[in-house]
Design goal:
The complex is a heterodimer of chains A (181) and B (192). With 181 residues, chain A is of the alpha/beta class. Chain A has helices spanning 18-31, 42-52, 68-75, 97-105, 118-130, 173-180, and strands at 2-4, 10-14, 35-39, 56-59, 88-92, 110-113, 135-137, 142-144, 157-158, 166-167. Chain A is 35% helix and 20% strand. Chain A is globular, with a radius of gyration of 19 Å. Chain A starts with a strand and ends with a helix. By secondary structure, chain B is mainly alpha-helical. The longest helix of chain B is centred in the last third of the chain and has 23 residues, at 150-172. Chain B has a two-stranded antiparallel sheet with strand order 1-2. Chain B has 7 helices and 3 strands, in the order βββααααααα. Chain B has a domain at 56-184: Four Helix Bundle (Hemerythrin (Met), subunit A) (Up-down Bundle). In chain B, a hairpin with a 4-residue loop joins β1 and β2. Chain B has helices at 41-52, 56-77, 81-97, 104-119, 128-143, 150-172, 177-184; strands spanning 10-13, 18-21, 30-32. The chains are: A alpha/beta (181), B mainly alpha (192). At the A-B interface, β1, α1, α4, β6 and α5 of A face β2, β3, α1, α2 and α3 of B.
Chain lengths: 181, 192
């Protein structure tokens, strides 16, 4: 069995709501964390990120000055002086599919919808500690691999084959239907 | 932990992207322990959270008052980018926090209000009573919680408000397919 030594981890918590920050601090301390830094907006969080170099960032989405998405985008700058690889857990009241996709495309590592639970938060932290994903860099994206699953049914351009962009040749559904008649 | 030297990365280049892999920088945080020595951090955290619960009613009242203050600003100044953003943030915080504080129906009413603010084509065209009823509902649920019959009433109130709000949004967005889709789409993100 494995356990996380939380006392070796440094957290940065970013949420404009003082009650939620208190809850997060309580949960992280009870997990065993000692170093928990807090900010109430994205701009301060970015400064603290550079200064304290946290191992894990937990951020809200909706905040004044700049929000959690902009914070994630600024952390995920491949040529920045700071660490662009730190896991980012987005903890938010937003739960719509469109929002999850936007967060993923901003380089967020894990998404957790409020209301918060100790179990949900622990599982997200365990996941980023034990199962880090490789990073992908394209012209328009830098962040954790957005493919969590592999699908044998995928039809379309295969972009993960070296050299040239290759296309998987698969019969169309129409062709399949014709040959099965 | 954060002071340790970053591990070396390997980069595999492909036609239009690079795959960057580094040895797990947090590997030293994982420790193997015997099962008999394994405590339950989640149970410990839930117990700590229960220790905070005496403050939840007061926190919820503060959040509800913040929502009412934001509404008062709108009644005074109308919808501006500032007043709209504050009303949305106040409602959005209640949507996210209320269930943790023991007021899930207040969270549901606040979520319904968030949807109106987010998806109404023109907030000035939203019936003022519709917004006021949501705010009054949140206040009533928070203030009347100690009455024994309020849990079912609060749930029913939130459900009816959501129904009215959804009907309004479906009609108002009938020519805006992207908003209509968002209004009708189920929640996706997991809470656990």
């Amino acid at each position: 069995m494995f356990r996380i030594d939380f006392n070796k981890l440094r957290f940065l918590v970013c949420d404009d709501n003082p009650h939620m920050r208190r809850i997060l601090r309580t949960l992280l301390h009870s997990f065993g964390a000692r170093e928990v830094y807090e900010s109430e907006d994205g701009a301060t969080a970015l400064e603290m990120y550079t200064h304290y170099v946290p191992d894990i960032v937990i951020t809200d989405w909706s905040m004044p000055i700049f929000d959690g998405i902009e914070l994630a985008q600024m952390i995920r700058q491949p040529d920045s002086k700071g660490n662009p690889f730190a896991p980012i857990i987005m903890l938010t009241g937003h739960s719509e599919k469109r929002r999850v996709t936007v967060a993923r495309d901003a380089g967020v590592t894990e998404f957790l919808a409020k209301p918060i639970s100790a179990k949900g938060l622990y599982q997200r932290i365990l996941n980023v500690v034990a199962n880090p994903r490789p990073f992908i860099k394209t012209k328009t994206y830098f962040g954790p691999d957005r493919r969590r699953n592999t699908s044998n049914a995928y039809i379309g351009p295969e972009r993960r084959v070296g050299g040239e962009v290759e296309v998987l040749q698969q019969p169309s559904l129409l062709d399949k239907a014709r040959t099965s008649v | 932990m954060a002071q340790e030297k970053p591990a070396a990365v390997t980069i595999a280049s492909f036609a239009d992207h690079h795959v960057i892999t580094q040895p797990n920088p947090l590997r030293n945080v994982l420790r193997r322990v015997a099962e008999r020595d394994l405590d339950d951090p989640v149970a410990r955290a839930e117990k700590a959270l229960a220790g905070l619960s005496g403050e939840f009613k007061n926190w919820m009242a503060i959040e509800a008052d913040r929502l009412s203050d934001a509404h008062a600003s709108i009644l005074r100044d109308g919808f501006t980018s500032v007043t709209r953003a504050e009303l949305f943030r106040a409602a959005h915080d209640i949507k996210g926090d209320a269930a943790t504080f023991g007021f899930p129906s207040a969270g549901a009413a606040a979520e319904s209000l968030c949807r109106i603010i987010e998806h109404a084509p023109d907030l000035d065209e939203v019936p003022s009573d519709l917004i006021a009823h949501h705010i009054n509902a949140v206040q009533a649920i928070v203030r009347e919680r100690t009455r024994l019959d309020t849990a079912a009433t609060a749930g029913e109130l939130s459900k009816q408000l959501r129904g009215i709000a959804d009907a309004f949004l479906a009609l108002a967005n009938r020519d805006r397919p992207e908003h209509l889709e968002a209004v009708l789409a189920p929640s996706l993100a997991p809470t656990e």
